Amino acid sequence: MSVKTLIINNQLIAASETETILEAAKATNIYIPTLCHLDGVSDVGACRLCLVEIEGSSKLQPACATHVQEGMVIHTETEKLKTYRRMVVELLFAESNHVCAVCVVNENCELQDMAITVGMDHTRFPYRFPKQTLDLSHRVFAMDRNRCILCTRCVRACDELEGAHVWDVANRGEQSFIISGLNQPWGEVDACTSCGKCVEACPTGSIFRQRSTVAEMHHHPERVAIAKKRKEQRKKKEQDS
């Protein structure tokens, strides 16, 4: 495994060739904003908040899905990127129905925190007010698609860690939405083990525990990484036995 040297924000760093720009930056305490990234599951580059500028490249590249290369010169805090990130967060708020004052994760929401981080206090885009559904069919959890940002963290956590494949994305473009099973009510999907990994993975109030009231719900996304570590330990133990 070879080591690559690169420069991020004028700081010379070394990273393994298997690491992404995001991983290399985090290892040296360089902050790059993300929403769809979640430790413990694969990266898909869905939110586009982690885009960075790489000298010599005409395109912005997602830090979570771009591996380091020898001699890279990377910038993560240019005015262009700051403007772009704020626009992304504005669009996330405008394209769905986020009413923070009555949300179960108010003041405990990653999207809300990101709005503060990028300096977004209003959106310049017209609100779409899409007609979304609320699924209360599960005996423990619930899904409110009005608050979903299509990060697919729930899909990947269920697929890669629990192996239940309960969640998926239906349709394309602005018509996309998260479905359970074959577009069944969540409570009717036999594959669901009620493990709660999707609940902990959700960055907003879209997937929550039933009977949670305003600002009462706390997600624990770090538990997803713990679940992955335990899965790897079990697999290694089985291989050694």
Features:
241 residues, alpha+beta, Ubiquitin-like (UB roll), Alpha-Beta Plaits, 16% strand
Total strand segments = 10
CATH topology of the largest domain: Alpha-Beta Plaits
- Mean model confidence by pLDDT: 96
Strand order of the largest sheet: 2-1-5-3-4
Q: What is the overall shape?
A: globular
The amount of helix comes to 25-40%
H/E element string? EEHEEEHHEEHEEHEH
The level 1 CATH classification of the largest domain is Alpha Beta
Just name the CATH architecture of the largest domain: 2-Layer Sandwich
User: What separation lies between the terminal Cα atoms?
Assistant: 27 Å
Rg, alpha carbons: 19 Å
Q: Helices, strands, pairings?
A:
Layout: E1 3-8, E2 11-16, H1 21-27, E3 51-54, E4 61-62, E5 73-75, H2 79-95, H3 110-117, E6 134-135, E7 141-144, H4 153-162, E8 167-170, E9 177-180, H5 197-201, E10 207-209, H6 222-240
Parallel strand pairs: 1-5
Antiparallel strand pairs: 1-2, 3-4, 3-5, 6-7, 7-10, 8-9
Description:
The strands form three sheets. The chain has a five-stranded mixed sheet with strand order 2-1-5-3-4, with helices on one face. It has a three-stranded antiparallel sheet with strand order 6-7-10. Strand 8 and strand 9 form a beta hairpin. It is α+β, with helices and mostly antiparallel strands and 241 residues long. The mean pLDDT is 96. It folds into two domains: 75 residues, Ubiquitin-like (UB roll) (Roll); 145 residues, Alpha-Beta Plaits, CATH 3.30.70. 33% of the residues are buried. Helix content is 27%, strand content 16%.
